[in-house]
């Protein structure tokens, strides 16, 4: 692999690329510092630092293998293992992002449902208050109508009593008129006729 400076974007810098670059630098007898690696493949300092720690852990794991395996083969295995790990990590991160999006959408739907429930409860409360006000108004109107009806009934009772009184007075007048008529008639019968001249 020819060493040349590169300005890859952060998402282009993979663990496998880091391992291959470090191995190439080692084969050429050059330093494998983060600065040297970054000059060649680019990427962010934090990403390269994470790759460096992973590479050191993988080398420590490879050193525990007692079988007679060449260093080149070990490095190739580590690079492939790193590529698999990186690919798996990227897939898991993509799944995590997708799940977070699903959770976000579910939370948004939940918030919307809660808002609709709150709106309905407020609407029902408002309707109950309006109905209570209408009932109170109707009860007041009914009480006023009952009071008016009672007043009218009292007036009717007074008028009926007055009519009864007038009817009694008229009856008395009729009786008096009849008696007077009878007297007049009797007086007319008892008239003294004039004495005839002798």
List the helices and strands and how they pair.
Elements: H1 15-27, H2 34-41, H3 45-63, H4 71-189
Helix pairs in contact: 1-4, 3-4
Helical percent range?
Answer: over 70%
Unreliable sequence segments: none
Helix-and-strand structural type? mainly alpha
C-alpha end-to-end distance: 191 Å
Would you count the extended β strands for me?
Answer: 0
Shape: rod-shaped
Identify the quaternary structure here. Answer: single chain
Beta-strand share of residues: under 5%
Please summarize the sheet with the most strands.
none
How many DSSP helices?
Answer: 4
Taking all Cα atoms into account, the compactness measure Rg is 59 Å
Mean pLDDT: 83
What is the helix/strand order?
HHHH
Salient structural properties:
198 residues, mainly alpha, 80% helix
Summed up, what is this model?
The protein has 198 residues and is mainly α. The protein contains four helices and no strands.
Explain what you see.
- The chain is built from four helices and no strands.
- It is mainly α and about 200 residues long.
- The longest helix is centred in the middle third of the chain and has 119 residues, at about 70-190.
- The protein is rod-shaped and about 175 Å long.
């Amino acid at each position: 692999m020819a060493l040349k400076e590169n300005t890859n974007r952060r998402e282009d810098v993979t663990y496998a690329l880091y391992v291959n670059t470090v191995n190439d630098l080692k084969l050429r007898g050059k330093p494998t510092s983060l600065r040297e690696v970054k000059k060649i493949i680019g990427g962010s300092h934090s990403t390269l630092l994470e790759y460096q720690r992973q590479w050191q852990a993988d080398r420590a794991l490879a050193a525990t293998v007692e079988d007679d395996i060449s260093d080149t083969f070990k490095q190739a295995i580590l690079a492939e293992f790193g590529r698999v790990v990186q690919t798996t990590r990227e897939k898991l991160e993509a799944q995590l992002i997708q799940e977070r999006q699903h959770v976000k959408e579910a939370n948004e739907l939940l918030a919307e449902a809660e808002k609709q429930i709150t709106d309905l409860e407020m609407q029902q409360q408002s309707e109950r208050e309006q109905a209570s006000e209408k009932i109170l108004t109707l009860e007041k109107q009914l009480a006023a109508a009952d009071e008016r009806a009672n007043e009218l009934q009292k007036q009717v009772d007074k008028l009926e009593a007055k009519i009864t009184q007038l009817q009694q007075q008229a009856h008395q007048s009729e009786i008096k008129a009849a008696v007077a008529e009878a007297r007049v008639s009797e007086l007319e019968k008892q008239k003294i006729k004039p004495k005839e001249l002798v």
